[in-house]
Structures are given as structure tokens and as C-alpha cells.
Amino acid sequence: MFKALADPTRRQVLQLLRAGPKSAGELAEHFPVSKPTMSAHFAVLREAGLVDSDKQGKTLMYRLRMSVLEEALMEFSELLGLNLAQRGRKTAAAASLRKASSK
Amino acid sequence: MILKRTSFAIAVALLILGTAAGLSYAQSVDLLRAEAAKRTMQVIIGLTLAAYANLMPKDVGRWRASALAVARAQSALRVGGWSMTLAGLAHAGLWAFAPLHIANVAGMVAVASAMLVTLIYCGRTLVACRSKQTTTP
């Protein structure tokens, strides 16, 4: 489960599914990644039991299947991820400033 | 799946009964005051409620015919799960730390409010689903 929640793309998939069930195609539209990569993300989420899938005709539909604790953990990791990203950006900006001032 | 759920429910029931018996014995031999025993029991009840409600959104059931019905069912389960989990935790927290007279009332209010929120949301969801069904040609 932690592995599934660790990836920002998978977290975003889960957030998209909060609004309701979506097809694999609809979900894939939101990400600039290849189909096999997206399928791998879906497989990880399915294995972790965070989503549920159903084949309806030719379409593979996904829906959310998260407990309250799992959802809270996702929010927490999202927050932490955001903070880490912000920290990363700040560090990069500070490094570039140092580089510019040393020239 | 049913066996797993039943065994979990039996385990929880045994835990509650065992704790109650243990607390009662501790109270009879003057190891524990009546207030502490009551608080412990109520904390366990609150945590049990939170544990059950935590799993509520995971119990998604079968796929329904329309995507709208699936979405509505999912949102109802999420609202119910979140409100009952928070109420269970609040109940446990109140019985652990608040003065007895406050815990007694506030614990009940927390759980009753969560039940009310869940029922109202489920009712509204059902009505919205039905009206959508009747308006759709």
C-alpha cells in the first residue's frame, strides 16, 4: 500500500477517482505517459486493493476502494510530497543564486 | 470474505467481553475505580466504531449499471466512513481525556451527529439518483 501511495502519478489517479468511476482511457488522458506505464500504475493500485476494476464491454472501468486511513495516508503523503517538492525547488533556487553570485 | 468478516467481528466481540470481564474483576478487587473502568470501556467502544467505519468505504459492493449510481454509492460510503471514523475517534478521545460529565454528553452527541450526517447524505444521494433516473429519457 505504501508503495502504491509513494508515486505522485498513482496518487493523482486516486484523486481523479474520488469524483467517481472512470475508464482507463479517461484516466490516462490526464498523464503524459505511455499506455504500458499507465497499465503498470493501475496494476500496482489494484494489487494494493486501493482501486477496483470491472470490464464493461471493451472498456475497463476503475473506481476507488480506499479505507479512511488509506485516504488520510494519501493526503499526508501528498502534503509531504508537496513540501519536499517545494523544498527541492527552494534548494535549487538557492544553489543557482549562489552560483550566480560567485561568478 | 464472509468468514473473514465474521471471524473479525467475533474477535472484536470477544475482546470487548474479555475487557469488560477483566475490568469488572479489577474493580471488584479494588484495583480500579468505577470511573476508570467505565472510561476504558467507552474508549474501546469508540475505537471499535472507528475501526469498523474505517473499512466502510472499502466495502464498495457490486458494480451498478450506471456510472452515476457507482459514483453516488461511492460518495455515500466515503461520507459515512469519514464521519463515523471521526465520531469514533472523538468518542474515544473524549472518554479518555474529558471530564466525565462532558464525555458522557459530547461522546453521544458526536456519534449521533455522525449518524445523522450519514443518514441525511445517503437520503439525499438516493433522492438525487431517483430523480435523475426519472428525468433521463
Describe this structure in words.
The complex is a heterodimer of chains A (103) and B (137). Chain A is α+β, with helices and mostly antiparallel strands and 103 residues long. Helices cover 66% and strands 14% of the residues of chain A. Chain A is built from five helices and three strands, in the order ααβααββα. Chain A has helices spanning 2-6, 8-17, 24-28, 35-47, 68-102, and strands spanning 22-23, 51-56, 59-64. In chain A, strands 1-3-2 form a three-stranded antiparallel beta sheet. In chain A, strand 2 and strand 3 (59-64) form a beta hairpin. The longest helix of chain A has 35 residues, at 68-102. The model of chain A has no long low-confidence stretch (mean pLDDT 82). Chain B has 137 residues and is mostly helical. Chain B has one domain. Helix content of chain B is 85%, strand content 0%. Chain B contains four helices and no strands. Chain B has helices at residues 2-28, 34-55, 67-97, 100-135. The longest helix of chain B is centred in the last third of the chain and has 36 residues, at 100-135. Chain B is elongated, with a radius of gyration of 19 Å.
DSSP helix fraction of chain B:
over 70%
Structural class of chain B: mainly alpha
- Rg of chain A computed from alpha carbons, rounded to a whole number of angstroms: 17 Å
DSSP helix fraction of chain A: 55-70%
Regions with little confidence, pLDDT below 50 for 5+ residues of chain A: none
**Which percent range describes the beta-strand content of chain B?**
under 5%
How many β-strand runs of chain B? 0
Number of helices of chain B: 4
Q: Would you count the extended β strands of chain A for me?
A: 3
Oligomer state equals heterodimer
How do the strands line up in the largest sheet of chain A?
Answer: 1-3-2
Output the helix-strand order of chain B.
HHHH
| Global shape of chain A | elongated
Helices and strands of chain A, in order, run as HHEHHEEH
Which spans of chain B of ≥5 residues are poorly predicted at pLDDT below 50? none
